[in-house]
Amino acid sequence: MDPPTLPVLDLSLASNPSTKPLLLASLKSALFHTGFLYLTNHGISPDVIAALTSRVPVLFSLPSESKAKISMHNSPHFVGHSGFTEEKTRGKKDLREQFDFGSELPVVWQSKDEVKERETDFTKLYWRLRGPNQWPDEEEKDLKGFREALENYMAAVESLSLRFVHLIEEAFEIPVGTFDSFFTSRGPNLPPQHRVKIIKYPPSSSPGVRGQGVGAHKDSGGWLTFLLQLGETVEEAEGLQVLNPQNLETEEWISAPLISNSFVVNFGNAFEAATSGGVRATVHRVLTPKSTSGPRYSIPFFMGLPLDMTVNQIKRSIPSEVHRLRSDSDEKNDYALDHKWAEEDLGVAQLRKWFRSHREVAEKWYGVEFVDRYLQ
Ligand SMILES: O=C(O)CCC(=O)C(=O)O
Ligand SMILES: [Fe+2]
């Protein structure tokens, strides 16, 4: 059997009642079969995207002293700059450099001895993930307007992601707005922090060898991911690969090449668990560019979920037909139904993820012994 090609969904079909059913059918199929899709005609202004992407190479060309000033090592919230190979996936160094940002938020975490009376227990350590960004100095190089460009971009992708979640609800035939309370202040939880990475994958240092840009993983940072691949040509952006979800016995990688003016959308662990595997959280990776190529740049946006929510809570707002989708089908998933973490606050899994990928930062802010214990 030929490996599946990744579906391309044209969001403009949603605006016309005669074409919308077609879009919803493709979406339902993509959620279930591939867990990876392209979104075209997404409606985000090219100017908003260009304002950010045009500044990306300048950002990476900052001198190392300027990068050090906003190093992730300064931040218990795991935002800021990580140098080449400072991040790990499954214990192995990723050959990439990156800047992590989140929705700009005040600190809410309180240490046990300064507890004020509040409804939410903000002494739980995962609340420490929320906090302000570290912004680069815009006077340097020509980075003027960087913060504004990033904030505008995040706001635009956030509204796209909310619009997209409504389409998922329609595809699943559940009331539109079912998930709204997760993402807005109308619900009982604090609205989540969304995260963005701006990533550079330098070309491989040895001819003929492609290294681990980022190792094989499922996204664990949130509900869904909107990935922007930068570049004018397919060659410039080449490297993203998806593990063929239809044939998990043989390790077969499908390329996810650049499609101009599109986002690549995929789904996080929590979404997969909350739908009993009905939505796939598909494994993917990035190979470093060939030694003869230029660097590859990408910008994933991870739509967050409230840290004090559990997967089991989300499960309850999903109808049994969706939960049965996978078990009623012959097409299996690598998803394990007995997720222990489904009962834990999502913040616990988030903290674990950041501890694993940035151990030194974790040890500095949370203590060596605590990190050791947490990761056991
Ligand atoms: O850089 C990419 O294209 C993908 C990055 C990715 O999968 C991640 O950071 O989770
Ligand atoms: Fe990813």
From TrEMBL:
Isomerase in keyword set: no
InterPro entries found in the cross-reference section: DIOX_N, IPNS-like_FE2OG_OXY, IPNS-like_sf, Iron_ascorbate_oxido_reductase, Oxoglu/Fe-dep_dioxygenase_dom
Record-linked SUPFAM superfamilies: Clavaminate synthase-like
Keyword Lyase: no
Keywords: Iron, Metal-binding, Oxidoreductase
Domain of life: Eukaryota
Domain Fe2OG dioxygenase as annotated: residue spans: 192-305
One Pfam family cited in the UniProt record for this chain: 2OG-FeII_Oxy
Family label: Belongs to the iron/ascorbate-dependent oxidoreductase family.
Name the record gives this protein: Fe2OG dioxygenase domain-containing protein
